[in-house]
Specification:
- It is a single chain.
- This protein is mainly α.
- Helix content is 82%, strand content 0%.
- The chain is extended, with a radius of gyration of 26 Å.
- It starts with a helix and ends with a helix.
């Protein structure tokens, strides 16, 4: 609230806001900086990287690393809390360890505060990273379309900017999930050991169930990928038809082709919806 509260107070006092009343974005979040960094990294032929690595890491290393570190700190404290709580409960009836128990309780209280703080910073950092990625890729796609440096039609370009590029900004959980997944892989041996110490052989059943469900999730993801590609193709086709109809509205009315054009758009939309329903069903099965 370091900038929201003063801004609201100023708006309430003046009954309006001017552009100068809003605080400046940090340098690493400004559109001009992100566009410049993206062009520098992406056009560097000596160090070619994938588009996703360029958008999430190369142009905003500090933001990404900070987000991941907060996520790992949050998960590390969550890993320690059950161990400290077990020590506290084991020594709850021992009066000789009262002072130590106070220390355990204090640690859990501080850990909860730090854990929640790190989790919030990690999530909003993930939102920040994905918004920056969308900010960097949007002007690049638009500029390429204006220079006619692609064979894609207007519908595909419109869908690319309005759907694909914007989807990066709506994947707010991506870096947050990456922090969780990487920590889970690294801490898996310790988790299995702790479970085996507490549950014995029953822990193996849980580990086996986890491996089976993970394998099923991977199979469903592989099944979903080609359907997503077909969905994007259907969206491109529908967007192209709509663009052509809008551009040729007078000709369609003159020739009496409005019903035919509407039928073509409806057919394209129905194909798109069939693919979308299939994806939603697979997503539901993956939950």
């Amino acid at each position: 609230f370091w900038w929201v509260t003063p801004t609201l107070r100023r708006a309430n006092a003046l009954h309006k806001l001017r552009p100068d009343d809003l605080p400046q974005l940090p340098t690493h979040d400004r559109a001009s900086f992100l566009k410049k960094r993206f062009c520098e990294v992406w056009l560097d032929v000596s160090n070619k990287r994938s588009l996703l690595v360029t958008l999430l890491y190369s142009i905003q290393k500090r933001v990404l690393v900070k987000t991941l570190l907060h996520g790992w700190a949050f998960l590390g404290l969550m890993f320690l809390d059950p161990l400290i709580l077990k020590k506290l409960l084991d020594a709850a009836d021992n009066q000789k360890q009262t002072e130590r128990n106070y220390g355990y309780a204090l640690f859990l209280a501080v850990s909860m505060f730090l854990r929640v703080s790190c989790m919030e910073v990690c999530f909003f950092g993930s939102v920040r990273v994905m918004n920056n990625a969308r900010t960097a890729i949007g002007p690049a796609v638009f500029a390429k379309a204006l220079r006619h440096e692609t064979d894609m039609d207007s519908g595909a370009l419109t869908n690319l900017m309005a759907t694909d590029a914007d989807k990066l900004g709506r994947w707010t959980w991506t870096v947050f999930f990456l922090a969780q997944w990487s920590f889970a892989v690294v801490s898996l041996p310790a988790v299995v050991y702790c479970m085996y110490s507490l549950l014995g052989n029953a822990a193996l059943c849980g580990a086996g169930t986890l491996l089976v469900t993970n394998h099923l999730s991977m199979l469903l993801a592989r099944r979903t990928k080609p359907i997503v590609a077909r969905l994007q193709e259907a969206r491109d086709k529908r967007a192209s038809l709509v663009s052509e109809c809008v551009a040729s509205a007078r000709l369609l009315k003159l020739r009496g082709w409005i019903d035919d054009a509407k039928d073509q758009i409806d057919d394209a939309r129905n194909i798109e919806m069939r693919h979308l329903v299939s994806i939603r069903l697979l997503d539901a099965a993956n939950i």
